Amino acid sequence: MSPNLTLIITMGVLFAAGVYLILERSLTRILVGILLMSNATAILFILISGPNRGVPIIGMSPEDQMSDPLPQAMFLTAIVIGLGLTGFVLALAHRTWQLNRNDEVQDDIEDRRIIRLAQRDKESSTYEPDEGPDDSHEASDEVSDTDSRQAAEAEEIYLQLHGRRINDPKDPDEEVDSE
Questions:
Q1: Rounded to an integer, what distance in angstroms lies between the CA atom of residue 179 and that of residue 177?
Q2: Separation between Cα atoms, residue 20 and residue 33, nearest integer Å
Q3: Could you read off the pLDDT of 55-73 as tens digits, one per residue?
Q4: How far is CA 36 from CA 9, 21, 42, 49, 71, in A?
Q5: What's the rounded Cα separation, in Å, for the pair 114 and 126?
Q6: How far apart are the two ends of the chain, measured CA to CA in Å?
Q7: Quick one: which of 27, 44, 120, 155 has the fewest CB in 10 Å?
Q8: Helix 5-22 and helix 27-48: axis angle, to 10°?
């Protein structure tokens, strides 16, 4: 069986319109976008379910003539998820209308403040850009006393745990698997 071209085009148009509406700032348009995408998903599951065959219950029809029950279960799940999202967005729209007398999604004040701070921020004097994979990872000559002391402490801890220095070659008695 070949899929119905009309259903495929309808599904594509519904998905495209739904995505476009979800990207809007009005909660009413977002709600309509969710409804369109929910219906497009239902059409998608109708398309992937294949031809209409026997009931997918053992004993009701021969096993080779049964319909696939998975798309049917996914279809019901899509309906429940669409209904849940619709209820959630309706509650958001109602509450936004009560507070602001409009259904526009407003910018978050904290987000705007963080963006302004990030734009004013300059690179610190200790910032070093990441080195590429071909660059060496050797320490620079401008290492502070604190960094030297921390590196020495880390080296001693490594020596205590592993019984050798960090840059020493592996113990020759250890076997290395070549697999």
A1: 6
A2: 7
A3: 888 888 888 888 888 888 9
A4: 14, 9, 10, 20, 19
A5: 22
A6: 49
A7: 120
A8: 150
Cβ atoms of 78 and 34 within 8 Å: the answer is: no
Within a 10 A sphere around the Cβ of 16, how many other Cβ atoms?
13
Residues 6+ apart with CB under 8 A from 166: 155, 158
Query: For position 178, what pLDDT does the model report?
Result: 46
pLDDT-based confidence at 139, cuts 50/70/90?
A: very low
Structural domains of the chain ordered from first start: 5-53+68-107 (1.10.287.3510)
Q: Which of 147, 36, 16 is nearest to 82 (CA)?
A: 36
CA distance linking residue 47 with residue 150, whole number of Å: 63
CB 49 within 8 A of CB 16: no
Q: Grade residue 143 by pLDDT with cuts at 50, 70 and 90.
A: very low
Q: Give the pLDDT of residue 35.
A: 95
